[in-house]
Amino acid sequence: MEWYDRVKELKKETHINTKELSQRSGVPLGTLNKLLSGQTDKPKLDTLEKIASALGTSVKYLCGGEDYGGFSALSEKFARLDARGRDAVMKTADAELSRMEAEARRAASDIGLKRKIFIYDVPVSAGCGSFLDSTHSQSIQLVVNDVTDRADYAVRVSGNSMEPRFFDGDVVIVESCGEIPVGKIGIFLYNGESYIKKFGGDRLRSINPDYKDIVFSENDDIRCLGLVLGTISKAE
C-alpha cells in the first residue's frame, strides 16, 4: 500500500474531504490532489508532516504502515474534560508532537524516503568565478534527513579556493536565502559571476590562504543566492 492510500483511508475514518485536509494541513489543494492521485513523486518531508499532523498520525505510519488506532475515542474524552484537563492534554500533545517530528525524520531516513532537487549544470567557482545559469539544470534525488530536507538546489564546485572544506568537483546542497550570517559559507552572485565563498560582511573570503579576499566596492552588484548546507557527493 502506498502512503497516499493510507491518507485516503484516514480521510474516510476522520470524515474529512481533500479540501478540508488542505485547509487543516496548509498544503495547497492542487498539490494535494496531485499527490493523492499519484501523479507526482513523493512529497517533501515537511509536506508529509503537515498531512500526517492534520490526520492525527505520523509520517512513519503513512510511509510504513505501523498500527494506528484512530482518535475518535480520544476526541470524545477530550470534549468531556474541563479547562484544566484540556490544558494538561494540550501540553502533553505538544510534547508528543515534538517527539513525533524528531522520530519521523529519523524514520524517513531509515526507509529511504527521497525528494528531488535541481542541480545546476554550470559549476560555481571556488576560484575565479563563473555564471550560475538557472536555465541549465537537471534533477537529482536526495535521501531525506534533517539537512537534505532544507535543500532547494545543488551546485558543483569548481576550483580549489575553498579547500580543504570543499574540493574541485564536489556537489554541495544549498538552502535558498537572500542573506546569511557573517562567517557562513554561501553561494553568491558577484558582478554577474557565481561563487562559493565565506561571507565576511564587506567581502567574500576563501578558505585556501593562496586566494585573496574579494572586497566589495561601492559599485559592485552582490547578491546572496543561498546558504551551503554541505557536500553530498563527488561529481562524476
CATH C-level category of the largest domain: Mainly Beta
Q: What order do the SSEs take from the amino end to the carboxyl end, as H and E?
A: HHHHHHHEEEEEEEEEE
Radius of gyration: 23 Å
Largest sheet: 10 strands, mixed
- Unreliable spans are none
- CATH homologous superfamily of the largest domain - what is it? Umud Fragment, subunit A
Distinct helical segment count = 7
Explain how this protein is built:
- This protein is of the alpha+beta class and 236 residues long.
- The chain has two domains: 3-112, 434 Repressor (Amino-terminal Domain) (Orthogonal Bundle); 115-234, Umud Fragment, subunit A (Ribbon), CATH 2.10.109.
- It contains seven helices and ten strands.
- The protein has helices at 3-14, 18-25, 29-36, 45-54, 59-64, 72-80, 83-110, and strands at 114-120, 124-125, 137-143, 153-158, 170-175, 185-190, 193-199, 203-205, 214-215, 222-234.
- Strands 1, 2, 3, 4, 5, 6, 7, 8, 9 and 10 form a ten-stranded mixed sheet that branches.
- The protein is elongated and about 70 Å long.
- The mean pLDDT is 77.
Give the secondary structure arrangement, pairings included.
Layout: H1 3-14, H2 18-25, H3 29-36, H4 45-54, H5 59-64, H6 72-80, H7 83-110, E1 114-120, E2 124-125, E3 137-143, E4 153-158, E5 170-175, E6 185-190, E7 193-199, E8 203-205, E9 214-215, E10 222-234
Helix pairs in contact: 2-4
Task: Provide a compact summary of the structure.
With 236 residues, the chain is α+β, with helices and mostly antiparallel strands.
Name some characteristics of this structure.
ten-stranded mixed beta sheet, 2 domains, 434 Repressor (Amino-terminal Domain), alpha+beta, 7 helices, Umud Fragment, subunit A, 25% strand, elongated, 236 residues
